[in-house]
Amino acid sequence: MKTWIQGGYLINPKTKTEGYYDVVLEDGVIADIRLPGELSEEKSASFEILDATGLTLVPGFIDLHVHLREPGFEHKETIYTGTRACAKGGYTTVACMPNTKPALDTPEHIRALKAIIERDAVIEVLPVGAITFGLAGEKLTDHKALFESGAVALSDDGKTTMSEIFMAAALKHAREYGRFVTTHSEDHRISGQYKDSVYPLHAETDIVERDIRLCEAVDGILHVGHVSGAETLDAIRKAKSKGISVTCEATPHHFALDDTMVNVMDPQAKVNPPIRSEAHRQAVVKAILDGTVDIIATDHAPHDAESKQKPYSEAAYGISGIESAFSIAYTTLVLKNQLPMMRLVEMMTSKPASIAKINSVGSIEIGKKANLTLLDLAAQITVEPDQFISKGKNTPFRGRTFQGEVVMTLYGGEIVYKRSDN
Q1: I want to staple 297 with a disulfide (CB 3.0 to 4.6 A). Which of 226, 249, 350, 357 is the partner?
Q2: Within 13 A of 308's CA, how many CA atoms are on the CB side?
């Protein structure tokens, strides 16, 4: 049976296509794209009709920075719960970070995770391999073996690789496989002095400047995670102007919140890097508008309640952000700051696909995988963590209202999330 998506307004940045189109899905791929009325009604009996009237049809979202916690921290999240939360957020492909237990630091560990993904996931999950064993920064992993076992990138995630020799090696090895190194940029020698307060931006900027220098030296491919302020963005902007292969991401909590909107000392607002001043928030928005920021990523980091119900210095870092990301981005960037909708969709679909070199997704084209998201741009949502699919209910957005809602997510032509009619 074919599926005929009728009446939707299609936005596809990869081909710069925008307008009303009917889309036909068959055997998990996009089989046809036609203007309304071009598919004859007499053939409709052979189709399952999906009425998208009043909705916007975009490629399935792609997030290059999520934490799905399994193995080792299943009380916080699992592949089963996490991928269903991603689907509710409109995501059909995500890259999961290696800070699991055991870490994703050997081919065996990656293969074991892929077996769980095959069993429990409802969307595509791409493992990120560790730069060093146990993310400890003491001994390099076998980067080539990690790539050959299926790693999409390398990272030591929240434990920044402080050794320049190790970081240069990771960048060099990733380039050999056409892959990237994604970084959490934090000088722990500085940030470690701020257990009871927000650490300064230069702890981030200093590492980003170092990694840009190393990237240029070895002709690497660098992707900077969750940029949080002006000086870091200036360094990335300068690197791009020099032709260095560097991209970066921004998260909804860094472009939608500042330290006057939330109490950054509240454990629910404790994220890493921290939520900063309004001037830095505006700098992130400006960098999105001028193209310095390449993609939107969530840094989805679910935690059990106990991990957040502690004094600030002891509480865990992180936000459960995958289910509310689109609504926050659409409201903050498109409605409030006039970012073109085409550009927002690009930042959540074709651009991350390009960075990760996953060519079968990120675009609505004949022959591409039928990963699609339907949006209701008129709908309003209130962030209610108790209704999250994710095990993690930790978010500083609780009770806030945003516009734009994911109505349906299709992965390989199959519905993996549908908004409740209740």
Answers
A1: 249
A2: 21
Please confirm whether the linkage preceding 59 is cis (ω < 30° from 0): no
Q: Where exactly does CATH 2.30.40.10 map onto the chain?
A: 2-57+367-418
pLDDT at position 98 is 98
Whole-number average pLDDT of the chain: 96
Instruction: Enumerate the β-bridge partners of residue 5.
Output: 23, 50
Max CA separation in the chain (angstroms): 71
What is the per-residue pLDDT across 12-70, written as a single tens digit (0 to 9) for each? 999 999 999 999 999 999 999 999 887 766 566 678 889 999 999 999 999 999 999 99
Residues of the chain with CATH 3.20.20.140: 60-356
- CA distances from residue 282 to 65, 254, 258, 350 in whole angstroms, order as listed: 22, 9, 9, 25
pLDDT in tens, 337-363: 999 999 999 999 999 999 999 999 999
Q: How far apart are CA 235 and CA 315, in angstroms?
A: 31
The residues, any chain, with a CB within 8 Å of residue 350's CB and separated by 6 or more, are: 13, 14, 59, 362, 363
What is the CATH number assigned to the segment(s) 2-57+367-418? 2.30.40.10
Indicate which residues carry an active-site annotation: 299
Can you name the CATH fold of 60-356? TIM Barrel (3.20.20)
Could you read off the pLDDT of 117-165 as tens digits, one per residue? 999 999 999 999 999 999 999 999 999 999 999 999 999 999 999 999 9
Query: In this structure, what are the phi and psi dihedrals at residue 303, rounded to the nearest 5 degrees?
Result: -135, 155
